[in-house]
Write a structure and sequence with these properties.
The protein has 186 residues and is an alpha+beta fold. The chain has helices at residues 51-54, 110-113, 133-139, 150-153, 161-167, 173-176; strands at 10-14, 27-34, 37-42, 46-50, 67-70, 74-84, 94-98, 101-104, 119-129, 143-147. Strand 7 and strand 8 (101-104) form a beta hairpin.
């Protein structure tokens, strides 16, 4: 068995050549990555559905835009809460994933977590890969792996996140941020 180096907490940024429409210009935060597979949420797919429409008690705690995000193509009828909580200790109902980023147990009363939250985003569904599947896509050049920043989770301009994440890289990846939406118009 091949040892898998964990990418938990890092971002997958879709390469322009990635043809799967679920991941066109996607920025995925990996919440779990090990030899059993990978799970993440797409950070830049807001839906028109307001958080208050499905999880009213959490609505006042989410940042702009106050909508549910499509976390990926898997289990669209389930919800995940991802929050940034500064400091060393997180409250009951929050599990650290990487740095200040963690998962919220949406069954926890919001008033217990609210005072500690730096930011919160609600996702419908997630992106998932079986054992070795993500590694295969990485070897094919479908994704760029970069470090995440706490502000990525709650970007107020999710439609610009793909370019913003690439632009801040200190490598040739920064140039890819200028890649046209439709290369045939070049």
């Amino acid at each position: 068995m091949t040892e898998v180096s964990s990418l938990t907490g890092r971002l997958l940024v879709a390469a322009p050549a990635l043809t799967d429409p679920n991941f066109d210009r996607a920025v995925v935060l990996l919440l779990d990555h090990d030899e059993e597979g990978s799970l993440g949420v797409v950070l830049n797919r807001p839906t028109p559905v307001g958080v208050g429409d499905i999880l009213a008690s959490w609505a006042g705690l989410t940042g702009e835009p106050e909508v549910v995000f499509q976390g990926g193509p898997v289990s669209l009828d389930s919800a995940l809460g991802v929050a940034v909580i500064p400091g060393d200790e997180g409250p009951l109902g929050w599990r650290r994933v990487h740095g200040a980023i963690g998962l919220v147990d949406l069954e926890t009363p919001p008033e217990l977590l609210g005072p500690a939250l730096g930011s919160l985003r609600i996702f419908a569904g997630y992106a998932g890969w079986g054992p070795g599947q993500l590694e295969g896509e990485l070897n094919e050049g479908a994704w760029y792996v970069v470090e995440s920043e706490p502000g990525d989770v709650s970007s107020p301009s999710p439609e610009r996140l793909w370019r913003a994440v690439l632009r801040r890289q200190r490598s040739e990846l920064a140039m890819i941020a200028t890649y046209p939406d439709d290369p045939s118009l070049n």
